[in-house]
Known about the structure:
By secondary structure, the protein is an alpha/beta fold. It contains eight helices and eight strands; from the N terminus they run ααββαββαβααβααββ. Strands 3-2-1-4-5-7-6-8 form an eight-stranded mixed sheet, sandwiched between helices. α3 (76-81) links the parallel β2 (68-73) and β3 (85-86). The radius of gyration is 19 Å and the shape is globular.
Amino acid sequence: MDAPEIFDRHARRRARDRAARDYAAHDFLRAAMLDGIADRLASVKRDFADVLDLGAFDGAFVAPPGARVTRVDAGEAFAAQTGGMQAEEDRLPFAPGSFDLVVSAGVLDSVGDVPGALIQFRRALRPDGLFLGAFVGGNSLATARGAFRTAEAERPAARFHPMIDVRAAGDLLVRAGFALPVADSETLTVRYPDLLRLIGDLRGMGANNVLTGRTALTRGALARAVEAFAAQADADGRVAERFDLIFLTGWAPAPGQPQPARRGSATASLSAALGQRERGE
């Protein structure tokens, strides 16, 4: 028996299509993820011939020189913009061993079957192929979550996606069969003038609520959330919001690979502040 769907696939595709219209104005989180992936990729001294960019968005991921890149996005508009194909991360159409590098930035936090998706990523890799991923997780959006809990204290509603922390992310890599798995995190703090600007960013990056059990937000609840969020402002009137970026590294098993040390030592939690960023100037 299949597990119930956590996310509304149609709503997710629709949100991505809306985000495609003005994505460049809201791409700062994925830009940070791609920077982190580029740093990790730069430390790998080998060539890659066939690369899969999963969750391509606007095609900003720069593949290694000479590599053939297949771009895939769940949204029709992003897929069309990048000359790629439309497909969902846990329903891939590729034969096993099609790629030697799979990259996924900014989408796994809204995939319902993350373990199944990771297994498919690993199967799509050739032996000793590399997977590099990044997504929003951990304790992200703590201030906004608190504001909505305050606003809807009498009738709590699911407004935010469940988050995967760095330890669970490492366990998922192991469960999916990756060799030499590493999960680590970086924290980005963004300072907002108000809650509505934050909501605008989330919608603009296609990260709005697409849970299957979501309910309509009333004007009264939104007004109370705006007020609760503003109550957390610093002296300059801005509110600090937290985004934890979870990075994943794993290799498709192959003979002759180095073996990890004791169980659990391959998953590390690294908290590195990327600095403050102002939004809503």
